[in-house]
Amino acid sequence: MIKIHLSLLCLTICLLARAATLQYPALSDPTEARYAFIALEMALSGDWVVPKVPWKGAIEPYLGKPPLHFWLTAASFELLGMDEWTTRLPSFFALLLMCGSLLYVRRSPELQDSAVSATVILVSSALMFFMAGASIIDVTLSGFIAVACTAGYTCITNSHERYRAGTIFALALGLSFLTKGPIALALVGLPAFSWLIITRQLSLL
After folding, report:
1. Torsion-angle region of residue 57: left (phi > 0), alpha (psi -120 to 50) or beta?
2. What is the mean pLDDT of residues 192-202?
3. 89 vs 21, 60, 72, 84, 158, CA distance in Å?
4. Per-residue b/e over 27-37, b at no fewer than 16 CB within 10 Å?
5. What is the DSSP string of 102-123?
6. Could you tell me whether strands 58-61 and 52-55 are parallel, antiparallel, or unpaired per DSSP bridges?
7. What is the pLDDT at residue 57?
């Protein structure tokens, strides 16, 4: 129990440190600046259908990515104003989704200790700490993927929660698809399908 409490304390400290430093550094990275501009253009123009970027002196449609990450950033601008930390807020919320997904499986007695340890490792890793403070689509995608995987695991292991977990699984996959397209279905579908084959539970499909 003491170990779990210490792990949760470390987790809280890491999350607070990440939240407190979202403002830094400035948006100097080309990817962050581009995604921030797309979201700002949405918020200012009111056109949330087609993402747009500056290109050769004009504002052109940007069709390289689905729009969900830009919607989240534009909503952050609308609610809290344009700033570095509001640009990065969707990535931080995605980190919270990942943490919540990992901690949710603590409900399984055999996973209680490992779920907390895995969450601390996730948040305290240098790469994730950096990525969760950057306006990057992959972090938003990872948040929804984590929810989908957790819901899929619940679907397989808990028949009493199968309907609710299945609904969340489908919604999380839809949001993942809106974030980065078909890759979301592959990232979740391939391991889930493989697991169902290995455990001979294909009927759950």
Report:
1. left
2. 86
3. 11, 25, 9, 9, 33
4. beeeebebbbb
5. HHHGGGSGGGHHHHHHHHHHHH
6. antiparallel
7. 83
